[in-house]
């Protein structure tokens, strides 16, 4: 596909104008960042893996009736998605204590939570994506009350789906974050899962060993990030082999 006008470049993806009105080409980079981009590196093959993994999850969600912005994968690093207005929130669903909630509340990492906990962060890198409440969201008009009810429902449906498919391949879904977009159809809008779902945006632990298979491998210097992501893809049947040296061999 011919390169089109760049719309936006983020830490892990670059967005370009799509071939048709209302579409965007989402390009997955090999860049890895942590701690609000204070730690950076380029991990060969990461973008290819995240493209395929996000395609797998978005397609699966669509098959069970959860709306997403995903249209189709174009090649090993790009996918075509619907253009949408991103609500400026990160929606986080936690099944086990890990990361910031452990630090904030003094809960030991790995502790199973009494029920899935949904949190919201305001999307602003310069502020460090601060935790906000529904009161903040309503007061500043980021989303309506109906939007919030729909967002909560979408987040919990994603959690049910992701928890199930991960458990089936021996992986515990500790937590994840998603973004929500508004797609306009005439005078009506609907909310869809946007951005990506990948090991960049989830915490995934091996059920038997506790081995981390997500971006914490990079954050905490626990080994090869490509090996970790490749293991997730291999278990889900996306990779032909787990013997990854440079670029992964992905099932087309």
Largest sheet: 7 strands, antiparallel
Could you estimate the helical fraction of the residues in percent? 25-40%
Note the quaternary state here: single chain
User: What proportion of the residues form beta strands (DSSP E)?
Assistant: 25-35%
Fourth CATH level, the homologous superfamily of one domain: ATP-grasp fold, B domain
Named at the architecture level, the CATH assignment of one domain is 2-Layer Sandwich
Note the gap between the termini.
17 Å
**How many H/I helices?**
6
Which class of secondary structure composition applies to the elements?
alpha+beta
CATH topology of one domain: D-amino Acid Aminotransferase, Chain A, domain 1
Mean pLDDT: 93
CATH domain class name of one domain: Alpha Beta
Shape: globular
The unreliable regions are 242-248
List the helices and strands in order.
EEEEEHEEEEHEEHHEEEHH
Strand element count: 14
From the alpha carbons, calculate the radius of gyration and give it in angstroms: 18 Å
Structural description of this entry:
The chain has 252 residues and is α+β, with helices and mostly antiparallel strands. The protein has a domain at 85-206: D-amino Acid Aminotransferase, Chain A, domain 1. It is 27% helix and 33% strand. The chain is built from 6 helices and 14 strands. Helix 1 (46-63) packs parallel to helix 6 (225-235). It starts with 5 loop residues before the first strand and ends in a 17-residue tail after the last helix. Mean pLDDT is 93; it is low at 242-248.
